[in-house]
Write a structure and sequence with these properties.
123 residues; 5 helices; single chain; 2 strands
C-alpha cells in the first residue's frame, strides 16, 4: 500500500515538486561552508518528501551534538516557519476532499521534521 501511496503522492500530492525544491535549496546551501549542515538537512527533507508513505519521523537515538538546539533555532528563524506554513496550507488544501486526506496527513508529517530537522531521523 505504501508503494501505491508514494506513486500517487508523486503525481497528485506534489511530491516531485517539493523534492526538487528541497534538492535545489540543498545544493545552494552546500555551496557555502556555513550552509553545509543546513543543505544536508534539505537533502534529508527531499528524500522524505519524495516518498513519505510508510516512513515515520523519530528523535535521534544517537547522542546529538550540543549545537543541535542552536542549529534548530537558526533553521526555524530562516526556513522552518515558512516550510511549516507551506505544508500546513498544502494539508488544508488536500484535506478539503476525502481523497486528499492521506496526502494531508503526509504533509503534516513533513511539517514536524520541516520545522526542526536537526536531531531527527526518518525510519
Amino acid at each position: 500500500m505504501s508503494l501505491l501511496g508514494n506513486i500517487l503522492w508523486i503525481i497528485f500530492g506534489g511530491g516531485i515538486v517539493i523534492c526538487v525544491e528541497y534538492l535545489l535549496a540543498g545544493v545552494l546551501l552546500c555551496c557555502t561552508i556555513v550552509g553545509i549542515p543546513f543543505g544536508l538537512q534539505c537533502f534529508k527533507l527531499a528524500f522524505f518528501a519524495i516518498a513519505p508513505f510508510g516512513k515515520q519521523v523519530y528523535r535521534s537515538r544517537i547522542p546529538v551534538s550540543p549545537l543541535t538546539p542552536l542549529l534548530n533555532i537558526v533553521w526555524i528563524v530562516f526556513a522552518g516557519i515558512w516550510i511549516a506554513l507551506t505544508h500546513i496550507l498544502f494539508a488544508i488544501g488536500c484535506a478539503i476532499t476525502i481523497i486528499g486526506i492521506p496526502f494531508a496527513i503526509q504533509h503534516m508529517k513533513i511539517v514536524d521534521i520541516g520545522l526542526a530537522p536537526f536531531g531527527r531521523e526518518i525510519a
